[in-house]
Every structure is written in C-alpha cells, then in structure tokens.
C-alpha cells in the first residue's frame, strides 16, 4: 500500500514511521528544517513503546514528487489545512482514501472542499506527540489507538492489517465516526483549553481543587454543546473523560499547550473558539471556553512580539 503522510510531526511522523517500520511504502510531505533533517539524517521516533529510526526517508515538500497513492493520512495543524488540502491533487486518484487525524469537528468538511467527498474519512487518536527537534519526534504518552470511519472499506481493511503488523499502533474502524469525533472534540477542547491556559500538565490540574473545577466546567460546557448540536454523548461520559485524562502521565499537556510554549500558532479557534461560536448559535452559555478563547486569542498566530 502506497501511503503519503501530510505532515510529519507529532502525529504524522509517529504514525508514518510505525507504518513504514511494519513494511508500508510511506512517503512524507514535510517542510523547512524538519524536511531537511529527515532527508539528511532520517526520522527518529522516541517512544516508551519502542524507538524507531528510519534511515532512508522518502520526503518532499511537493506532492507532485510522490504522485498518486492508495492512502493519504492528513496530519497538519488546523490553521495549515486549507493550504495543505489545496495541494493534495497529485496524490489523489479515483481510488485514493484520505484519512484525517486532525482535532476538532471541521477537518472532514475542509478536506471535502478540495477533494471528492467520498474519498475523505474522519479519524481520531488520543496519542500525544511532538517534534522535539528537526528529524526527531517524541511520543509523549497516550495510547496509540486510532479510530477511523470507512467501516467496511477494503482500503481501510488493508490499513488495519498493516497496523496489526505494526508495533505501537492500533487501528479500529467504527460505524459512527461522527460520534467519535464529537467525543474527542469535547474531551480535547477542555484538555487543550485547561492545560494551555493553566500552563500545566494534566496531573497537577486534576490534583488542585479549583483548577479541577475549571477543567471539568470546560468538559461540561462541551457536553451541553454536543447535545444541542444533535450529538448527545452517552450516559457516564463525564466519568470516562476524567478516566482518560488521568491515564496520561501527569506532565502531559495538549499539543496546543506545547505549541503555545514554543511560541507557535495555536488551534484555539477550532477548539475553545468553536465551542464559543456554537454556544452563541445555540444560546448556551460557555463562560469557560469563551474565557480560554479570548485569553489565548492574543497568541493565536504565534508569540506576541
Ligand atoms: N500532537 C498531538 O499530540 C496530537 C495532535 N492531533 C492533531 O493532529 C494534527 C497535527 O498535529 P501535530 O502532529 O501535533 O502537528 P505538528 O505541528 O507536530 O506537525 C505538523 C507538521 O506539518 C508541517 N506542515 C504544515 N503544513 C504543511 C505543508 N503545507 N506542507 C508540508 N508540511 C506542512 C508542519 O511544519 P511547520 O513546523 O513548519 O509548521 C509540521 O512539521 C492537529 O490537528 C492536532 O490537533 C491529534 C491528536 C494528538
Ligand atoms: C490526545 C491529546 C490530548 C494528546 O495530548 C491531543 O489530542 C492533543 O494534545 O492535541
């Protein structure tokens, strides 16, 4: 199976390296110093599940260098989506499937504006990763599970078979990916808003009584928004979110908190900002998410000079 990873960062780098290690024919679309480092010195993944070193990496900043593939895995930040999606053309044939692992609820819609609708498949993962330095990605924690739509699609079955052979990757096709994406959106918007605004890993937040009230408030606002949007979350969801948060090593922060710390642009408009916008639409107060959105808006495009 020919696979192209769009973005070779925390998610694209980790998943692509694992698929290549398992025998997949993987190419990476990357850019800048990370692209140069991968071309010159390969791609390294540091993970408690087992490190990976891909010495010989097929990487380019131009999809035309790679040509049509069977599967595209889309993993750039949401603020880079339009540009990256607009450049997918040379990778996509009539048979290509494009699986997105981006956070939030907007990714599938963005991709469908650029490529045929039925080629796009939603997906979500709770694994946590980041680029430590050019050419090196760290798996910071979180189980390397990926949930994808496309249940019954032969290509997704082939991908699942490849993941079954891989170390540190588990892929499960599901019948209702929309529900999975909403669950992740609610869980992550609270986790990213909380760990970014409070500048802390999840452990100390859950241990501090006031900080915990705030992150749980973000979670509960998200649950109310999901119900109003026609995606009610199952009974007991609150408890499952807290269990999921507690399963991360205490120091783990969201990818947005990591980007904020590094002065990079952040995805707040698609997370707390999206909750704020939906709150206005449905007439539901979201004081927590609105505060996160407004406070971090100043940093949305990267470090304030
Ligand atoms: N990291 C995590 O733990 C998780 C992230 N996600 C989601 O996955 C998505 C990807 O996040 P993440 O892996 O952290 O992102 P990263 O920033 O780590 O990696 C994205 C990479 O793609 C590059 N890139 C962006 N646009 C292009 C382009 N047009 N051509 C070539 N390269 C490009 C970026 O370059 P540059 O550095 O120059 O910007 C960067 O190297 C996001 O939506 C995120 O919310 C989901 C689950 C967990
Ligand atoms: C799964 C989680 C919470 C990993 O940290 C994430 O999606 C993110 O940080 O963006």
Automatic annotation (TrEMBL):
Which pathway is this protein assigned to? Answer: Cofactor biosynthesis; (R)-pantothenate biosynthesis; (R)-pantoate from 3-methyl-2-oxobutanoate: step 2/2
Q: EC top class, in one word?
A: oxidoreductase
Reaction catalyzed = (R)-pantoate + NADP(+) = 2-dehydropantoate + NADPH + H(+)
Name the Pfam families for this protein.
Answer: ApbA, ApbA_C
Q: GO molecular-function annotation terms?
A: 2-dehydropantoate 2-reductase activity
Q: Where is the Ketopantoate reductase N-terminal domain?
A: 3-143
Q: Which residues form the Ketopantoate reductase C-terminal domain?
A: 176-298
EC numbers, comma separated: 1.1.1.169
The answer to whether the entry has keyword Nucleus is no
Q: Which InterPro entries match?
A: 6-PGluconate_DH-like_C_sf (IPR008927), 6PGD_dom2 (IPR013328), ApbA (IPR003710), KPA_reductase (IPR013752), KPR-Related (IPR051402), KPR_N (IPR013332), NAD(P)-bd_dom_sf (IPR036291)
Which UniProt keyword terms apply here?
NADP, Oxidoreductase, Pantothenate biosynthesis
Q: What does this protein do?
A: Catalyzes the NADPH-dependent reduction of ketopantoate into pantoic acid.
Family per record: Belongs to the ketopantoate reductase family.
- Provide the protein name: 2-dehydropantoate 2-reductase
* Upper lineage: Bacteria, Pseudomonadati, Pseudomonadota, Alphaproteobacteria, Hyphomicrobiales
């Amino acid at each position: 199976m020919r696979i192209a990873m769009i973005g070779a960062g925390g998610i694209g780098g980790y998943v692509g390296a694992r698929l290549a290690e398992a025998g997949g024919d993987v190419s990476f679309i990357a850019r800048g110093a990370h692209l140069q480092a991968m071309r010159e010195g390969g791609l390294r993944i540091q993970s408690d599940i087992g490190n990976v070193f891909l010495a010989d990496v097929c990487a380019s900043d131009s999809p035309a260098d790679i040509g049509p593939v069977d599967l595209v895995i889309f993993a750039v930040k949401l603020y880079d989506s339009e540009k990256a999606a607009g450049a997918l053309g040379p990778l996509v044939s009539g048979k290509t499937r494009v699986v997105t692992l981006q956070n939030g609820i907007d990714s599938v819609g963005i991709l469908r504006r650029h490529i045929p609708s039925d080629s796009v498949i939603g997906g979500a993962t709770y694994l946590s990763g980041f680029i430590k330095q050019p050419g090196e990605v760290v798996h910071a924690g979180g189980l390397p599970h990926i949930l994808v739509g496309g249940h019954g699609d032969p290509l997704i079955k082939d991908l699942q078979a490849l993941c079954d052979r891989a170390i540190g990757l588990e892929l499960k096709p599901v019948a209702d990916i929309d529900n999975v994406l909403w669950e992740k959106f609610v869980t992550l918007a609270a986790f990213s808003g909380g760990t970014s605004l409070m500048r802390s890993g999840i452990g100390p937040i859950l241990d501090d009584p006031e900080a915990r009230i705030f992150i749980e408030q973000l979670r509960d606002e998200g649950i109310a928004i999901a119900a109003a949007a026609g995606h009610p979350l199952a009974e007991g969801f609150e408890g499952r979110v807290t269990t999921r948060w507690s399963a991360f090593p205490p120091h783990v922060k969201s990818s947005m908190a990591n980007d904020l710390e590094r002065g990079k642009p952040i995805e707040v408009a698609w997370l707390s900002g999206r909750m704020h916008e939906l709150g206005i639409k449905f007439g539901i107060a979201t004081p927590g998410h609105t505060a996160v959105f407004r406070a971090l808006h100043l940093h949305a495009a990267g470090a304030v000079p």
